[in-house]
Amino acid sequence: MHITGLVGVFKTAKLPDGSALNISKCVHVNNRKISGYKSHDAHFMLHYLLPVAIKSTMPDIVVEPLIRFGSFFHSICQKVIHLQDMDYLEAEVVQILCQLEMIFPPSFFDIMVHLPIHLPKK
Fold this sequence. Notes:
Elements: H1 5-12, E1 27-28, E2 33-34, H2 39-57, H3 60-76, H4 83-103, H5 111-114
Antiparallel strand pairs: 1-2
Helix pairs in contact: 1-2, 2-3, 3-4
């Protein structure tokens, strides 16, 4: 069976030992779902695996803002963040969400999509 798409990338990913749970065990190809992973695995997928997966499966107009969004979360989750970086991140997340508004329909945007705007100030 040949697996394609975003779920296929997660199912066939080869990861170094100890980096994350064997994510392929959490992928349910028939249902096109990923479930049963821990928060560390979610961070690993968001920061490292998702950019590779979307780059290989989606058009460039969608890829760029999604990778920037993942990079924003990666930056905000660092142990040490400099104050001047927070100003940049605050402007960056606004630009990213504007890009996403040009791609996705209004029904995509609920309160959860809006919340990252407040993270740099917090």
